[in-house]
Each structure stands twice: as C-alpha cells, then as structure tokens.
Amino acid sequence: MFITPTAYKLGAMANISQRFGRAVRKRRESSELSQEAFATVAKIDRTYYSKIERGRANVSLLVIERVVKALGVDLADLFADVDKE
Fold this sequence. Notes:
434 Repressor (Amino-terminal Domain), 6 helices
C-alpha cells in the first residue's frame, strides 16, 4: 500500500514501530513469558524491550533478529502479523 507523505504525517496509519510492538507483544503473551523473562531470553535490556512493545523504540535489524529467534518464529511470519495490525 502506498501512503502519501501528507497521510503519513497526519498519522493515517499506525507507525511501523507501534505495529511491530503490538505484534511482538501478542506473540510474547502467547508464550506466557513476562517482559523481563523474554528480554533475558532475547538478550535485550528489559527497559528497552518495554519500549519496543510500546512502539517507542526504533528497532535495529540486530534486535529484530534477536526478537525473532527468542519468539521462535520466522521473520516473514512476524512481519505478516505487523502487516495485519
């Protein structure tokens, strides 16, 4: 889907960080892990992980890889969830 610069600035669509965070949170909650436990498994600082779930972090590819491995899912599957958000 193409979003015009104006629509993007106006927030016509939740930003990618927020959608990514919601998708990750749903996957983590289905595994019944706390944020702290998941952050430990993913080797991410707990407070930074909290920011990821709230859509307040601009996540690097390295961190995305750690999240995907900790969730035990394919990158494509996680981003399919992000697309649905």
